Amino acid sequence: MALFKIILYILSCLSLFILSFQAPLQNQSHFFTLMKTSLSGNSISKWSTLTEGDQYCNYPGIACDNDGYVVEIDLSAWSVLGRIPNDICSYVQKLRVLRLGHNDLRGGFPTGVFNCSFLEELNLSTSNLAGNLPNFSQMKSLRVLDLSNNQFSGEFPISVTNVTSLEVLNFNENSGFSMWQLPYEVTQLKNLRSLFLMTCSLHGQIPPWIGNMTSLVDLELSGNSLDGPIPVELGELRNLQLLELYYNQLTGEIPEELGNLTQMFDLDISVNRLTGKIPVSICELPKLRFLQLYNNSLTGEIPLAIGNSTSLHILSVYENFLMGELPPNIGKFTELVGLDVSENHLSGELPKEVCKNGKLFYFLVLDNQFSGGLPENYAKCESLLRFRVSYNHLSGPIPEGLLGLPHASIIDLSYNLFDGMLPKSIGNARNLSELYIQTNRISGSLPSEISQAANLVKIDLSKNLLSGPIPPEIGNLRKLNLLLLQGNKLVSSIPESLSSLKSLNLLNLSNNLLTGNIPESLCELLPNSLDFSNNRLSGPVPLPLIKEGLAESFSGNPKLCAPVYFNSSIPSLPLCLRPNTRKRLNTIWVIATTVLVVIVGFLLFLKRWYGRERLVIEQNGFSSTSFSYEMTSFRRLSFDQDEIMKALIDKNIVGYGGSGTVYKIELRNGQSFAVKKLWAGKTKDPSSDQLLLDRELKAEVDTLGKIRHKNIVKLYCCFSNWDSNLLVYEYMSNGNLWDMLHRGKVLLDWPTRHTIAVGIAQGLAYLHHDLLPPIIHRDVKSTNILLNADFLPKVADFGIAKVLHSKGKDSTTTAVAGTYGYLAPEYAYSSKATVKCDVYSFGVVLMELITGKRPIEQEFGENRNIIFWVAQKVLTKEGIMEVLDERLSGSFKDEMIQVLRIAIRCTCSVPALRPTMNEVVQLLMDADPCRFDAFKRWDKLKEESSPTMKA
Ligand SMILES: *[C@@H]1O[C@H](CO)[C@@H](O)[C@H](O)[C@H]1NC(C)=O
Ligand SMILES: *[C@@H]1O[C@H](CO)[C@@H](O)[C@H](O)[C@H]1NC(C)=O
Ligand SMILES: *[C@@H]1O[C@H](CO)[C@@H](O)[C@H](O)[C@H]1NC(C)=O
Ligand SMILES: *[C@@H]1O[C@H](CO)[C@@H](O)[C@H](O)[C@H]1NC(C)=O
Ligand SMILES: *[C@@H]1O[C@H](CO)[C@@H](O)[C@H](O)[C@H]1NC(C)=O
Fold it and tell me: Which residues are in coiled coils (predicted)?
């Protein structure tokens, strides 16, 4: 009996042991089945096929302990899609590390992970998670919590301050939190090394007690609404290596106590409102690599001590009020990579040793008062990518070799006093894409060697003293997009070879001494802007050039003529005739013109005499309309209403908009206008509905008429009667953005598209933020973005839509204002338009600019739009590249991706998470492909060379 009991006991112990050992392992294999049913992605599907049986410890991304328990799951950037199963912890109780970042995890925070009581590291960054966050207090063993780059919202989870084991806390880029201030409880985190709270809706001041968190190594508070001074107590964080406070509203001076942070590696307080001087103490920090203080109001000199630095890689202090000289030793003892001191009041000579250690990529000193010559040794700085010294008082010759630097992509010497000749070494410039030397005193001839710099896209040598011919070899520069040579003393003829510049978009040869004919072959190019004016050209102007409306481009060439007669559009060009008849005709012309001028003058005088400011104009004598129009005008009008009315004939129709017919009207004085005749669906009883419409329209038009902004189409006046409404706008010769992107024969390059994006954003930002009450456009789309001759975008057709749609008068689009493909999702449910609806639609336009695709395309699949398509693509690196318009050469990929990110934020389904238009403008400016500061590049440089990467 006793023995039996003992045996039974042993048996039960054994079985218990076996059970307790096997059950969880059994559980674990369930776990993988569960994961595979909840999540999808190529790598996950490999789990079953990769190994035999239950050898999941060998699965990629999985690590077990010696007993076979899963302790680590790392699926970072596996293109996983789906929801994390909520009960994973009941299968893998011993889990210590869970990394699921850079995937597309749907839904909210997976609260199930709280049951993994051993969890030490949780990384869910960049995973599309949204919603409120739970209380973290019970995560007792968590050391690393990374939820960065998601769309979490609601209250910031202050409860993390109870997780005293935390060493790394990363909430970067979760802009949906409601505004919060750093709570004192944060100081409970005695082990915290990294506190990342970038773009997290923080406001208020940086509390002085932060100086007590002496375990901190990285402190990142950028992109918030922090104000007040930088507390001197920060100087007590003796372990600090990285301090990022940029993009806030910090005021006061930079505390010299920061000079006590002897471990400091990266200090960035750019884009704030700091005043005072740059403390000498921070320039003496022994390990400082990155010092960025740009866009503040700093004064005084750049401390000489920075010239002694042996660690500095980047100094970026542009857009301040700094004065005095640059420390002459700067770069002498250190591997300087970037120097940007642009837009200050710095003077004196340029530092000679800046490239001493051969690592300099960026030398940017634009817009200062530097004088003297360019040091000869700059020409040996082979590492340079960008060299920009424009808008200074620099003089002397261009050092031989400078223009031929092997890696340089932009060389900008414009707006200085440089003289001498253009060095022939330009022929060695293998990577040069932009060369700006305009407005200097460069003489001699344009070296034919320039044709060997085969990557040149832009050349501006205008307003110099260049003489000699235009070298025909220039036709070899197949990528050339812009060639500006105006205002020189170039002689001889225009080379035929220019016609091989198939990408040429802007060509200006005006104000030179060019002779001979305009080559017929140039017609193959038809750039957007062409200027041959004020030369000594002769002979007939090729017909297609005139037809393209480029007539003004030929003025000031008395011997040029038009091969056939054009009604009135080219006043400056006489008809090509045989010499004797020309003379006679000329006399007749002069007489006729004189008579005409006298008559017109007399009529104008009469008209003024009788006064023309009558509000109600009787349109007698016109067959087209015989009703009285009421006119509301917003600008000084240089035209006569009668002329407008007369021109409303079918021949002048240029399009049918959603709400009316558009006419292009060219007036006798050469001015062009677009007139939109709104369809007013005649009602039987003109007294009721229709009048109400008119009143509303008028109120709207009144507001619009008062708007003055460079990115909003000018409305000159409005005529209305019971029958129709006519709106007179400025004429935009390049049509709308839709046609340009999706139908145009002109391929817009990325810098142009970026400029267009910024322009639209500025226009909308003005409507949203600078007007009271704000105006909501309601129908932002690429057909409503018009482009003028210089491709400056202007927003058109706003507000009007609302009035028309609210009255149901418009049958061509849906009942709600807005256009399918551009419509914010929330607008479909409640027809209440908000500014965030416009932001969404703008995001769609941005995507059109980036991808070159329409908002709805067959290839996106049924019921799928561009937003869905982009969201799918950006999950993988290759996908991102496929999103970018393949027609573009690909030279601005980084910048395009940066703008893509903005577009994705704008089209976020949660309105509150979309940025405001003001923010969008700022973000877009930061992504400027042509801006010398290249803020983003700094970040990239940092990432490459710094061990403490920006998360
Ligand atoms: C996994 O095993 C444990 C312990 O053996 C058990 O308590 C738990 O209920 C199991 N979980 C599931 C989901 O089967
Ligand atoms: C932190 O923990 C304490 C004690 O468990 C609790 O009373 C408090 O509410 C927690 N704080 C937060 C913010 O959750
Ligand atoms: C910070 O720490 C010091 C001592 O190290 C202490 O005297 C002071 O009270 C602390 N400040 C706060 C606000 O906790
Ligand atoms: C910190 O810096 C300030 C001014 O630069 C100095 O007065 C102070 O003594 C320093 N503190 C420590 C602890 O080194
Ligand atoms: C730079 O270093 C030298 C040598 O150590 C020293 O004499 C000089 O004072 C330093 N200059 C500045 C401005 O700190």
Answer: none
- The CA distance from 369 to 926, in Å, is 25
Q: What per-residue string of b and e applies to 900-927 under the rule 16 or more CB within 10 Å gives b?
A: bebbbbbbbeebebbbebbbbbbbbebb
C-alpha 328 – ligand 5 centre gap (Å):
12
Among the listed residues 146, 268, 340, 779, the single catalytic one is 779
Report the nearest atom of ligand 3 relative to the CA of 187: 14
In ligand 4, the atom with minimum distance to the C-alpha of 259 is: 5
Q: Which atom of ligand 3 is nearest to the CA of 212?
A: 1
Domain residue limits, the chain: 22-166, 630-730, 737-945
682 is in an annotated binding site: yes
| Token pair 């003028």 in the structure block, residue | 788
pTM: 0.64
Mean pLDDT of the chain: 81
Ligand 3 pocket, residue 212 CB under 6 Å: yes
The predicted-structure confidence for 614-666, as pLDDT tens digits, reads as follows 222 223 223 333 335 566 666 656 666 777 777 787 777 776 655 567 788 88
Q: Whose CA is nearest to atom 5 of ligand 5?
A: 308
Answer yes or no: CATH 3.10.150.10 is held by domain 630-730.
no
In degrees, rounded to 5, the angle at the alpha carbon of residue 164 between the alpha carbons of residues 158 and 170 is 55
824 close to 785: Cβ distance less than 8 angstroms: no
Q: Tell me the pLDDT tens digit for each residue of 889-934.
A: 777 888 899 899 899 999 988 888 899 898 899 889 888 876 544 4
User: What does the alpha-carbon distance between residue 487 and residue 583 come to, in Å, rounded to a whole number?
Assistant: 31
Pocket perturbation via mutation, ligand 3, pick of 182, 188, 209 by most ligand atoms within 8 A of CB:
209
Confidence band for 816, pLDDT divided at 50, 70 and 90? very low
Instruction: Establish whether residue 23 lines the binding site of ligand 1, counting it when its CB lies within 6 angstroms of any ligand atom.
Output: yes
Answer for the pair 459, 444: CB distance below 8 angstroms, yes or no.
Answer: no
Q: How far apart are CA 30 and CA 450, in angstroms?
A: 69
- Indicate the CATH number for domain 737-945: 1.10.510.10
From CA 213, how far away is CA 815, in angstroms rounded? 58
Residues in contact with ligand 4 by the CB-under-6-Å rule are 235, 256-257, 259-260, 281
Which ligand gives the minimal distance to the CA of 256?
Answer: 4
The least confident of 258-272, 295-309, 715-729 is 715-729
Shortest CA distance to 658 belongs to which of 780, 804, 813, 799? 813
How are beta strands 242-244 and 218-220 bridged, if at all? parallel
Q: Are strands 559-561 and 536-540 parallel, antiparallel or unpaired?
A: parallel
pLDDT at 650: 74
Q: Evaluate whether 823 touches 843 at the Cβ level (below 8 Å).
A: no
- Reply yes or no on whether 779 is catalytic: yes
Looking at residue 495, its pLDDT comes to 93
- 22-166 is classed CATH 3.80.10.10: yes
Over range 852-865, report the average pLDDT.
Answer: 83
Residue 841 and residue 824 in contact, taking contact as beta carbons nearer than 8 Å = yes
The Å distance, Cα 641 to ligand 2 centre, comes to 74
Burial of 809 from C-beta contacts in 10 A (0-12 / 13-18 / 19+): middle
List phi, psi (to 5°) of 84: -75, 130
Phi then psi for residue 44, to 5 deg, are -65, -40
CB 186 within 8 A of CB 209: no
The residue whose CA has the least distance to atom 8 of ligand 4 is: 257
Rounded to whole angstroms, the Cα distance separating 586 from 574 reads 9
Distance 305 CA to ligand 4 centre (A): 18
Ligand 1 geometric centre to CA of 225 (Å): 48
- pLDDT at position 715 is 81
